[in-house]
Write a structure and sequence with these properties.
Blueprint (H helix, E strand, L loop, with lengths): L16 H24 L4 H17 L4 H14 L6 H12 L3 H22 L6 H68 L1 H16 L6 H30 L7 H4 L10 H10 L4 E6 L7 H21 L5 E7 L3 E8 L16 H11 L3 E6 L5 E8 L15 H11 L7 H8 L6 H35 L2 E2 L1 H6 L6 H7 L23 E7 L8 E10 L2 E11 L1
Length: 558
């Protein structure tokens, strides 16, 4: 199956050239951005190299090992900041390719524990575990969980659409089968009725005309006409048997022995016999042929015979006494059968029994073999019927579904042809939703929404408390700064000053005047800040050998 929405249902994807090139392009872009992050964090050369290698390796393996790469990437990004951005790609890949909600939840939980736990251990020396936990949680939710949820929704939606299309095609095929069975039953009923009623009447006509033909009171002319009538009734019996066989079983009836000896009787070679029979009945029929005769497939050969037969029948009924011309032209690529009759020689015989479907049937018969039929009046008041039949065409339309939804069924068959069957057990397990009543579903939705809101409030509240508390531990006013004297004991000075444990003052002690050699400095923010935006006032206290050896006040640009 080549559809992107089903990739995660069929297992690991093959490493094609296109996939490898695309993954290498993604890895190169992420590695380049990661080098910038390492540069901002003052990373060493070996750390930059390790970050780029980790990004490339995790990106290439994410299709084969989505869960493992997610956990490993979350853990590695703690120690290699340059590989942090790859966690978004790993989260997207894991959400799309891990089958089952339980497995996906377990993988993301392990990745979360790895990211938060290792972040706490890595920053343990700073003694800020709560701040690290809150910050790591928010980053994991934003960079890993959100891409994973988005990709899982996208994949499930495409899987659902693909499953609906597959099942819709299956329903269409089943509908076509049911319609075919209903048509077969109706055809069998019609065949039985035709056999019982029409067959009986034709048998009576054949018997009576046979008896009339040997009547000594008839003239030779009359006896010849009666013979033609008897032959026509016998041919009608054979035609009825053939039609009944097709209607009943969907195949042509067995060919009688006398017809099997002359297989061309229902083809182009039998047209001369039809013309001779018409002449024997007193009709002026002329036949001509041009071009080099070429063999036709059975369906085209029979269609040519039917065109001539139908055209002569129409001429008998609608233009009695008019001359008829039958012409066969063997063209380079097709056989042209043309039958034309002049205007009626006299008034018609009154009401003519006609089903009105003869030309429609001829057009359909010609279309099925790749040809066409044209019928219309001529300038002199006559009528012309012509058919164009290819030499080597096979019957068309075998794949068509003859029901009201045939076009949709064919489209479904074309769209799904060549795709392996979908694993419905995996689809059902992935898209399964436990049945609940309206109240239960509403309660579940409200409960999930309430839990999400409570979790968000707790995270934001803890973050606010941590930030506010850390600000109080890192700010000092001008009076306290002036009260501290150089030379006082370090213990006494630290007891009067805040601890300075805040991310806002991290690294601020190195941004001012040079520090005394071998000293340990404490940087605090002034409570009265300058009016200029982007500038902070810092108070720095440096200690050495248990004594305050220097204090400085300076401004730092953010």
């Amino acid at each position: 199956m080549t559809r992107a929405g089903w990739d995660w249902l069929k297992g690991p994807e093959p490493w094609t050239r296109r996939v490898i090139v695309g993954d290498l392009a993604i890895a190169g872009m992420l590695a380049l951005l990661g080098l910038g992050i390492e540069e901002l964090d003052n990373g060493s050369g070996w750390r930059m190299t390790a970050s780029a290698g980790a990004v490339a390796l995790l990106t290439l393996l994410r299709r084969r090992l989505p869960a493992a790469t997610l956990v490993v990437g979350s853990a590695v990004s703690v120690f290699l900041p340059g590989s942090f951005l790859v966690t978004a790609v790993l989260g997207w890949s894991a959400g799309r390719r891990i089958v089952g909600v339980g497995r996906a939840g377990a993988a993301f939980t392990l990745a979360f524990l790895a990211a938060v736990g290792l972040s706490v251990l890595h920053e343990w020396e700073q003694m800020r575990p709560l701040l690290v936990i809150v910050f790591s949680t928010l980053m994991f939710l934003a960079m890993t969980v959100m891409p994973g949820l988005a990709s899982r929704y996208w994949s499930q939606r495409r899987t659902l659409l693909s499953a609906l299309q597959e099942r819709n095609g299956q329903l269409m095929r089943e509908r076509a089968m049911i319609a075919g069975q209903a048509r077969l039953r109706e055809r069998q009923r019609i065949a039985q009725d035709m056999h019982d009623s029409l067959g009986h009447q034709l048998a009576l006509i054949s018997v009576h005309t046979g008896a009339l033909e040997v009547d000594p009171k008839l003239t030779d002319r009359q006896r010849e006409a009666v013979g033609v009538l008897r032959q026509a009734s016998v041919a009608a019996m054979h035609e009825l048997r053939e039609v009944v066989g097709i209607l009943r079983d969907g195949v042509e009836a067995p060919v009688p022995v006398e017809e099997a000896a002359h297989p061309a009787a229902r083809g182009v070679a039998g047209i001369a016999g039809v013309v001779e029979a018409a002449r024997g009945a007193g009709t002026d029929v002329r036949m001509s042929a041009s071009g080099r005769p070429r063999p036709l497939v059975a369906a085209c050969d029979h269609a040519a015979y039917r065109i001539v037969q139908e055209a002569l029948t129409n001429a008998y009924k609608h233009a009695p006494g008019a001359p008829i011309t039958v012409e066969l032209r063997y063209e380079d690529d097709s056989l042209v059968v043309e039958i034309a009759n002049g205007p009626a020689a006299g008034p018609g015989a009154g009401e003519v029994v006609s089903g009105g479907q003869g030309l429609t049937g001829l057009r359909e018969r010609a279309r099925l073999v790749g040809g066409m039929v044209h019928a219309g009046a001529t300038e002199d008041g006559g009528f012309r019927l012509a058919g164009v039949l290819p030499y080597g065409a096979e019957p068309a339309g075998a794949e068509a579904v003859a029901d009201d939804f045939g076009q949709q069924a064919q489209a479904q068959a074309r769209g799904l042809r060549g795709a392996p069957p979908m694993d419905w057990s995996v689809v059902d397990r992935e898209l399964a939703v436990p049945r609940r009543g309206p109240v239960g579903g509403l309660a579940l939705g409200c409960g999930i929404a309430f839990a999400a809101v409570v979790l968000l409030v707790i995270v934001l509240g803890a973050g606010m408390l941590v930030v506010v508390g850390s600000l109080g531990d890192s700010m000092v006013d001008r009076a306290d700064y002036d009260a501290v004297r150089v030379g006082e004991p370090e213990r006494a000075v630290r007891d009067r000053l805040p601890s300075g444990d805040n991310f806002l003052t991290a690294g601020a002690d190195r941004k001012g005047p040079p520090r005394p050699e071998g000293s340990d400095c404490l940087a605090l923010m002034a409570t009265e800040q300058p009016d200029s935006l982007g500038v902070d006032l810092i108070y720095r206290f440096c200690f050495k050998d248990g004594t305050l050896v220097d204090k400085q006040a300076y401004e730092v640009k953010q």
